Amino acid sequence: MTNYAWMYRVGFTPWERYARTAAASVAPLLDREERERSGRLGRALDLGCGRGLYTAELARRGWQTVGIDYVPAAVEAARRHGVNGARFLVGDVTDLPVAELGTFDFFLDIGCFQGFNVTQRQAVGRGVSAVAEPGATLLILAFGPTRLQSLLGGVSPGEVAAAFPDWELLSTEAAATAGLGWPMSRTSPRWYRLRRRGPLSE
Ligand SMILES: C[S@@+](CC[C@H](N)C(=O)[O-])C[C@H]1O[C@@H](n2cnc3c(N)ncnc32)[C@H](O)[C@@H]1O
């Protein structure tokens, strides 16, 4: 299991280099979320937000954003660099504090879900579903399964869909690998977009 607390402590955070390199390819995906909503964007939850790079970006775009991560030092750093409209919590995404979170219209998971086993993935699915508005969308960036899965994590499209039985898998597309570095660049990362089914379609 990846020791994220140690990685933040020693400053080895390759996903942050990726965030800078991939910004131009992530922006259209966030634009799509916004285009599909008329008027107010609503609330967004950044799952495994780390030091809040994407939480801050979502807030800058007009989402009322909450970032959650279980490494306190990462959350403290996110708070220090905070922007208006972004709030950060220390918490475990496999055990979301449903009662205190409220509900969300959009969820983003960049590099967190891919590290979980089946039990944890189901727990994330239950928690996210419990705080999702009908019609909410979820965007996940995850490595694919490889021989290095025990080191890097990775999930298949079927495993993503299985964790979110109350959600429709709208699309899956290959993600940019520039800036990932080896061996992460060999994991065939994909973007998954899902929509929470509303009461009428359940
Ligand atoms: C690859 S990093 C990505 C961080 C951030 N999304 C980004 O792109 O900058 C994965 C993040 O997930 C967090 N994480 C892993 N397991 C978690 C859990 N069970 N609950 C909350 N955060 C978790 C780690 O601490 C780490 O910050």
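^ S-adenosylmethionine complex. The first helix runs from residue 4 to 10. The pocket of S-adenosylmethionine is lined by residues 4, 15-16, 19, 48-50, 53-54, 69-71, 74, 92-94, 110-112, 115 (CB under 6 Å).
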